[in-house]
Structure formats: C-alpha cells, structure tokens
Amino acid sequence: MIEEDVAELLGRVSLGDRDAFAELYRQTSPKLFGICLRILGNRGEAEEALQEIYVKIWQRADRFSQGQAAATSWLAAVARNQAIDVVRARKPAANAIDEAYDLADPAADPEKSAVVRAEGRRIDACMEELEKDRAEAVRRAYVEGLSYQELADTFAVPLNTMRTWLRRSLMKLRECMER
User: Fold this and answer.
1) What Cα–Cα distance (Å) separates residue 118 from each residue in 7, 34, 115, 143?
2) CATH 1.10.1740.10 residue ranges in the chain?
3) pLDDT tens digit string along 44-97?
4) By the 8 A CB rule, do 49 and 40 touch?
5) Half-sphere exposure of 141 (CA within 13 A, CB side)
C-alpha cells in the first residue's frame, strides 16, 4: 500500500467515486481490521466496527487534508476512534450482587482450557520450525492483519515472494499440526 495511492483514492472517494472506494477498501481493510481487532479483542465486534469505519470514510472523505496528515494515519485514526467508541458503548458490568450471581462463569472448564493450551503449544512448536522471517511474516499477516503489500515492504521482498512465503509457511504449519 503506497501512501500516495491511498491519498489519491481518498480524494476520489470524496468526489463519490465508488470504484475508488472499493479499491480503498481492498487496500486498507486488513490493516484497519487489525487495529479494531487489537482494541476490541473480539472478531465479530471488529468486523462490525470495520463496516462503520468505511461508512464514515465514505461520508467524511472530504475532511481528509493531505497537508495535515498521511492518508493511512487518517484512516488509522478513524478506525481507532470507532473501536474506542465501541468499547465505550459496551454494556457496563453488573453492579448488583444479585445480577452478578446470575452470570455464568465465562471461563472455559478446565478440560477445555487444557486442550486450548496444548493446541497453543503445538502451534508455537510448529512456528519454531519455520525460518524466523517466515514465522514473523505469518504472525504479522494473521495476528496483526498486515496486507501482503505491507509485509513485502517490511521484509523488502517482492509481493509475489511474500505470497509464496505465506502459502508455503501455512502448508508447513498444516503438515506439522497433522503429525
């Protein structure tokens, strides 16, 4: 994702260009989704927040000023603010003892917790079998939500090389997990 391209797309979106909006979404949604997911910690809420973010971008693209901030920074701020609004809007925790008593224990039972921890250890062990840069690329793509282009830029490799790294790494991880 090149900053100038994003700024140009935002300019076109401010004029009501739907094709530019679709391209802006394609280029920026993984990063903005990652921001929402980190703040909200819930995939469903992050997806809903992402929808609201793009509604706001469509409605407010004319407020973006290239001289004041980078386009990706402006988009990230819109995403961050929307995610924070979602956190603030969450139902407050029950205060009354009677209400708290009726709530089910949200923690998984010990057996499920043990299974989840064991699975996590297996994934960690399989990740260690990957080359360090490949493992880091997988983490950044699937945990942080970075796009292929952002990863290619970060690791200073061509875009298709990054796609190959991720595809082969996932195949190795699947193979390792099936052992």
Assistant:
1) 45, 26, 5, 19
2) 3-89
3) 999 999 999 999 999 998 888 777 778 888 999 999 999 999 998 887 655 555
4) yes
5) 20
Please give the model's pTM, rounded to 2 decimal places.
Answer: 0.51
Please tell us whether the domain made up of 108-178 is placed in CATH 1.10.10.10.
Answer: yes
**CB distance 138 to 130 below 8 Å:** yes
Determine whether 176 is exposed, middle or buried from the number of CB atoms within 10 Å of its CB (0-12, 13-18, 19+).
middle
Structural domain 3-89, CATH architecture: Orthogonal Bundle (1.10)
Which of 55, 103, 107, 101 shows the shortest CA–CA distance to 78?
55
Lookup result for tokens 């990863």: 151
What single-letter amino acid sits at 86?
V
DSSP 14: H
Residue ranges, comma separated, of all CATH 1.10.10.10 domains in the chain are 108-178
CB 94 within 8 Å of CB 100: yes
Nearest-angstrom CA–CA distance, 45 and 55: 16
Instruction: At 138, list the tokens.
Output: 């997988």
Token pair recorded at residue 113? 């917790």
